[in-house]
Amino acid sequence: MTADDGGFNLLDEPWIVVLTPHGDEKQVSVLEVFEKAPDLVTIGGEVPTQGFAITRLLLAFLHRAIDGPEDGDDWEELWRAGSLPMEEITTYAGRVRHRFDLFDATQPFFQVPGLRSAKDEVSGLEKIVADVPNGAPYFTTRSAASLERIEAAEAARWLVNTQAFDPSGIKTGAVDDPKAKGGKGYPIGPGWSGQIGGVLPEGRNLRETLLLNLIGREASDYVRIGGRDDVPPWERDVDGPTWDEDRPPAGAIDLYTWQTRRIRLVGDRRGVTGVVLANGDKIQPHNRNPVEPHTTWRHSEPQSKKFKQVVYMPRVHDPSRSVWRGLGAMLPSLSGRRTSGQEPRPSLAPGVLQWISDLVRRDSLPEDYPVRNRIVGVEYGPQSATFAEIVDDVLAMTAALINEESVELGRTAEGAVQDAENVAYAVWTLADNIAQAAGAERGSGAGDRPREALYAALETPYRRWLGELRSGTDAQQARTSWQLTVRDACWPIVNEVLESAGPAAWRGRTINSRLVNVSVAEAWFRASLRKHLALAFATDEETQ
Question: Domains of the chain by range and CATH?
Fold first, then answer.
């Protein structure tokens, strides 16, 4: 189907939102995004999850177009080229072109032709437009009229986003779906990308971002790319609606484009007015670490007992906790991927960061290369049936810190996080002790706000300090510098806590046979501070 026939082929039509170095947004086609990748910064969209999902789709396309890379040598040749291999990309595009038309009658992109319910119901666009909370449209800046029809380009972005991040909950009961009952498809869980805590390394431009995430086949001990069955849906035959219960993923390409839903857009290139949204391929998150490279993994003791084997689960992002506080789990030097012959590690680093570590160790990537780790994820509401919050953050570091051989550097970075955690707890304890001195019960919540205030005060300084760590960094000097920063940041918060104490807290009361008042609480805090920031206090003593 051509544009004249009402088609909308994503290989040629502009639909991907990209950011230029000048900060401008524009839309490009699939082929154009590959061609112009050296001159683009990143992929965006209406919500951050779109950029993550579309980037993974492009990675699947690129892997299949070049049938690789096979190993680090192949990757290094791509890296040094200065541009992406457009001849191979264009050739591959020609082979799969018929599968990229959004409105094709027999094989529409990322959809199922003929998908329908018994009553031919069509849902409104709020079912796929994630910035309109389903059932609560008053929590959006969109007008009702803007949801009556959206452009084909925007519909394509939401289509990809829905396959990756759609919440769980009841869906349309599609005809021929063996699990549908009473016209309803009962919950099978969120989209695959919604079940992980996305970690997507970004380079200095979009070309470098794609290549940093283009993992070679030689990395078979932590991710498999390729194989006969590891193909995207546009290379599979589609004869009609099909459902597959717990089909195991064949590899990373399969997961990048996992079809958690069966979808049919209602409309044409002039606009999309509705959608049929049904359940698709169910997938469970446990032990997908060999094939999913874009998330950190945690060892789950309960799941291990349940399945009678070592089980790792994706570590999802907590919107209430700054991403840098979980840095240790991300670094290959501290949370390596290779686990054979060992006790289960508490955490496994993302496979893509292990790949970058491998590139650094073989000198394919310089240690001072700046890597921006894009952190993307979703917190769902009750029963994972609605969007509660979208996580979007960036944690920048040099490739040296990612290198699994940089153990001392990794420990320095993680130790700095522990410094912050220790002092934050000391601040919490100070405020809590003062509250108890005034008559409150322990854990009354008096320390929560000061603790979070300290984390907020350390947010920018830690990110700046982390970005300055290099292969030649003096670890003790860097740690000392950080401890001085923490100490300086805590005192304005501590002084506010002390100044807000009332007369009753200054008089104090006996708790567990000890008098507790403001003076005692402050003395305890100072002792704790000296203990946890020993390097900072040692520096003071040396300069006296």
Answer: 297-405 (no CATH), 408-543 (1.10.132.100)
